[in-house]
Amino acid sequence: MGLFNKLKNEFIDIIEWTDKTDGLLVHRFNRYQNEIKMGAQLIVRPGQKAIFVREGKIADQFEAGTYTLETKNMPILSTLYGWKYGFNSPFKAEIYFIDTTEQLNRKWGTPNPIMLRDIDFGIVRLRCRGNYSYKIGEQENMLSRFVGAGEEFFADALEDQVRTKIVSSFSDAIAELKIPALDLAAQYDEISDAIKTKLNGYFIKMGLELLSFTLENISLPDDVQNAIDERASMSAVGNLNQYAQYQQAKALRDAANNQGGTGDMMGMMVGANLGGMMGKAQEQIQPKEVIICPKCQQQSPSNAKFCGGCGQSLHIQEQSCVKCNQAIPKDSKFCPLCGAAQEMHCKNCNALLSPTAKFCPECGNSQA
Length: 368
Description:
Layout: H1 3-11, E1 14-15, E2 24-29, E3 35-36, E4 41-44, E5 48-54, E6 57-62, E7 65-68, H2 75-81, E8 91-92, E9 94-99, E10 103-109, E11 114-118, E12 122-136, H3 139-147, E13 152-154, H4 156-177, H5 188-205, E14 208-219, H6 222-237, H7 240-257, H8 262-285, E15 290-292, E16 299-301, E17 318-320, E18 327-329, E19 344-345, E20 352-353
Parallel strand pairs: 1-4
Antiparallel strand pairs: 2-9, 2-13, 3-8, 4-7, 5-6, 5-9, 10-12, 11-12, 12-14, 15-16, 17-18, 19-20
């Protein structure tokens, strides 16, 4: 072997990226004065892509595989250098390795609560969190926008900006969907799809490809959570009178099972007092007697002075319905509660009769 061939073999390089640091997306292969030997071996591993750059211009790109660098597999560089024929001398170019694997389980969340107008609770504050995954899509856009002349580019440099955009898209999506706070937990998939749709265009502009997006949790403030718990408790209790009777019966049963004493008496007293309080509360919620507004026909408590619906004064003469015995405006022809007629006429002489009359006082005709 001649001296020239021996030196030529010593110049052949192996170009590869083996030191994979977590979160490192782009790595520039370092070579003295960026000098690459023709005939060098380029090794691109699965999940990587190699891009040659000359004087700031994107040139040839290589997918996963092993290549011997020659003019025939570097057509763009050959054109830039003006190589018309085989060329064996060293040349200068920058080589960037791109990590094209999926970046899994990237976290996002709301640093501050998001205001939401809700039909049940008015204005509420929401906090949310989730995860997403992506990979580098358009490598040329990625290199020109973020890498520049740098040697390495890490995911953290862009994910802070991405998380800000995600929170903004969440706010838009939740406002457009108008989902009540009580129904949010059942709509996580729909909300996630809406946010992902909003983010796709943004990721493409960043040179990325959004692969998945997940909403893990939406939390409400403590006061709203307490209100929801109270509403659930009231629904579980149901009828207040029955609940009071149950509590009182339970206290009596516990007293009967024990030997007697102060504890038993206290249990009975608590049950009795609870029953009394529940009974009063039920009476306040559902008054036994009502009065009908002569103007809008809305029901009001019998001791009300004005109608709660139209403000009409309720200081009017009253009479009792002949059927349901409720207070109704005097001279009413029909009861607005049960619909019973309050007067009738004789079948024979058409004289005005009491609704309970069996015979006409004018002509004596039977009304049966």
